[in-house]
Amino acid sequence: MVYFGEFRGKADKQGRIVIPAKLRNQFEKGSGKRNVSLFITKGLENCLFIFTEQVWESQNSRLRELPFTKGDPRTFTRLFFSGAAQSGIDSQGRILLPGNLINYAGIRENIVLIGAGTRMEIWDEEKWDSYYADSLKTYENISEKLMEM
Fold this sequence. Notes:
CATH architecture: 3-Layer(aba) Sandwich
Number of strands: 8
Order of helices and strands: EEHEEHHEEHEEHH
Helix content: 40-55%
């Protein structure tokens, strides 16, 4: 399943965000289950990553292959897994973001959910708008470099 699109919303005072129906349907198709279990963890550039159980297990398998005797893999896996939380989607289409992840991502109230291929990302709206504007300036150059790989 490929996740795509941009959706704007709000986090309530309890740290819950609504997953739009279109995305809930994508999660269900991607997992093959009606009651989807999602995994949320620290992403990069201070966003949050959301994975379905199937993709989470795939990521877990890949990370288990990293040598724990080396510093960078040890640090990455510690940060990636220690901040992770499992969440279901409630009857109102919401997931709960733990306080440690809200703090990590700097989420105040307005959020942006974006599709990023095999995962979704949650961004504080101001951070996303800034990141997007800065990144758009280099989009063509990045495209050329990636095509040369």
